[in-house]
Amino acid sequence: MGDTALVLVVGGLAVFAGAIVQGGVGFGLGLVAVPVLTMLVPDLMPGAAQVVNLVLPLFTLAVEWRKVDWRGLVFAVLGRLPGSVIGGAVVVFFTVQARSLFVAVMVLLAVALTARALSVPRNGLTITSAGFVSGVTGTATGIGGPPIGLVYQSAKGPQIRATLAMFFFLSAAQSLLVLAYVDELPARALLTGAVLIVPMVLGFLVSGRLRRYLDGGRARTAVLVVAAASALALIVQNALTQGWLF
User: Fold this and answer.
1) Is the bond preceding residue 46 a cis peptide, omega within 30 degrees?
2) Is pTM, for the whole model, over 0.85?
3) Domain count, the chain
4) Alpha carbon distance 197, 95 (integer Å)
């Protein structure tokens, strides 16, 4: 199987699975797909992932846009603006592996701290801070969901999904502009991302059952589980890349 076919099949399956998770939880596309895509096409990341991140939220918003927390969204975007600039610098000066490991450690710490409390206070300061961290990690690695997801974990499922979808759409557009500005957005990344939109759409279409299940009061647990699992996947990915396990 050639490299292109491998990306389309294996990467497509990862995007498909990630779209199912994000369609139900509100985030998770990058968490599931980015580790796989980084192993397959590290030179095209995070640009390829951001193309898919730009399109998927539109499907969620088409269904649940009325549930967006507009006030919280403003704080999140204000925090993300400077965060994305720093994320662009991180892309230039740090390797993909170093960026991914950094994100994984931060997410695990956040999950551990959050799991010990009933919820993270959701106010202007926490949302802005989460937006800032998401700007750094999202631009640098393609994974910007956990910080915002953890802040909104106590909200109802539709509000989590709608607010995060609007935030991710704006975030992906901003990250793509930053990556293009620092010359880290090759045409092949855009093409690969465009091709992966097909399995992304299919994944979202089958996520309806998961949405109904999580809306029965299980959204917070799902957020924590998805965030922790994604961080562990990034750590394993780095271990395999560096040959630590073999």
Assistant:
1) yes
2) no
3) 1
4) 26
